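Thread: "does anyone have the structure for this chain?"

Original post by V.I.:
We have the sequence but no experimental structure in hand. Need at least a predicted one for the grant figures.
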Amino acid sequence: HRLDEIFAICDDVVVLKDGNLTLRSPVSQVTKDDLVCAMVGREREESSLFTKRKKELTETLVEIKDASTGKKIKGASLKIRKGEIVGVAGLEGQGQRELIRAMFGIHPFLSGSYLWEGKEIKIISPKEAMKRDIAYIPDDRDTEGMVRSMSVADNLTLITLKEISKYGIVIKSMEEKSIQEGMNSLAVKAPSHEVPIAVLSGGNQQKVIFNKWLKKKPKLLLLHEPTRGIDIQAKEEIYKLLHTLSEQGVSTLFVSSDMIELMDVSDRIVVMYEGKITGEIPGGEATEENIMRLSSGESIKEE
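Reply from O.Q.:
Generated one for you, tokens below.
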């Protein structure tokens, strides 16, 4: 799904969609839009992409100040407003992974301040983060995002067992309702909710993971490469979901190595370099050039 590579190294291209050959052509005779249309199976409409926000967001949900985890995060500061999608860019290994995991309490900050709606808090474990209605979707779907040996249904209800149980016993009717809602929410395609989640496509696995967390009604979504390894149509569905959630007041921190993706979905982009946030760019003003400059520790050129 790295379309630039196709144009850089290939002579011919074929596209498969749902088991059907939808395009075969010399690379010189097609555009990226041609490939996208063939991969999605329909004309790509501009309205299907994230639309830039019309109203200004002012109320802060979470803020970290001079936060450090030791070697990787060195005095990082970040603010996320209610309903805002903040993208995190940077070259690989600059602290993005450590930042988002620290915010979920996997490897907590050792110093600095973590503020939630203006009050300082301590997030020292994922359990504490979940109590604050924080959800985390990791970059490694196979080992951290799901339990491959379990069914689709069990993965959907994994973190909401308390909500569908009484006295420690799962109520069958509540479980079935929860599973059906999860399957329908993002139109998960599966032979049955009883099959192992491992047999699903990457896009449908990711939909299950999203739905699992959305059942907790999070106030903050921490996303690390949430569209890695999934098809373009599933990506667009996730972008639409983020837009809808943001309109409902859900905040998102979105770490991605895809600069185009960040520019499409983010209200604001912050850039990390050597464990620090070296600058930020409003989503509507971001370009690949100024993101790369900040990613290399340089400043943005003044026009």
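V.I.: this helps a lot. The first helix runs from residue 3 to 9.
O.Q.: and Residues 137 and 223 are 5 Å apart (CA to CA).
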